[in-house]
Each structure stands twice: as C-alpha cells, then as structure tokens.
Amino acid sequence: MIPQNQRDYLINRIVDKLTEFIFLDYDVKLPSALNMVYQSNVYQLLIKDDGYLYTQSPSYIYELLMENSDAGLV
Using CA atoms, how far apart are residues 74 and 52, in angstroms rounded to an integer? Predict the structure, then answer.
C-alpha cells in the first residue's frame, strides 16, 4: 500500500485530468466540469479506501466516467 499523501496526490491529479477532459470535450465551464466529476459514482470508486482505481490512467477512468450516465453528460 502506498502512503496516504501519494494516494491523495494521484487522486487529485486524476480529478484534474477528468475535469480537463470534460471541459474540452463538452465545452462546459470549469465549475460545472468539477461538479460532474465530484458527483459521479466513478469518483466514489476512485476515493474508496480499499479500491485501487487511482492506479489507473486518467484516460481509462474518463472512459469509465463516460460509460456511466451519472456524470450527466451522455
């Protein structure tokens, strides 16, 4: 298991990239893009203590986000 501060860094980096992808792909304002990420089921999986989704690439996680309509984009 990696230290908590490294895990938090990876999660924050992924959230940044997901927000950027939504911002660019859907032409929404930054606060709306952040809201879409933070309110998604994928984000809940990302921050799960016993999960390892944070070890995946932001592109892979973005695909998961887009496959789930909970982001309100699809």
Answer: 25
Query: Is the per-residue pLDDT at 71 higher than 70?
Result: no
Structure tokens that stand for 56 in this block: 């995946």
pLDDT tens digit string along 6-57? 999 999 999 999 999 999 999 999 999 999 999 999 999 999 988 899 999 9
Tokens standing for 55?
């070890």
Residues 19 and 41 sit within 8 Å (Cβ to Cβ) = no
- Who's near 39: CB < 8 A, 6+ residues apart? 70, 71, 72
Using the structure block, give the residue that is written with the tokens 């893009």.
33
Q: How confident is the model at residue 74 (pLDDT cuts 50, 70, 90)?
A: very low
Q: Give the CA distances from residue 2 to residues 19, 21, 59, in Å, rounded to whole numbers and listed in that order.
A: 24, 27, 22
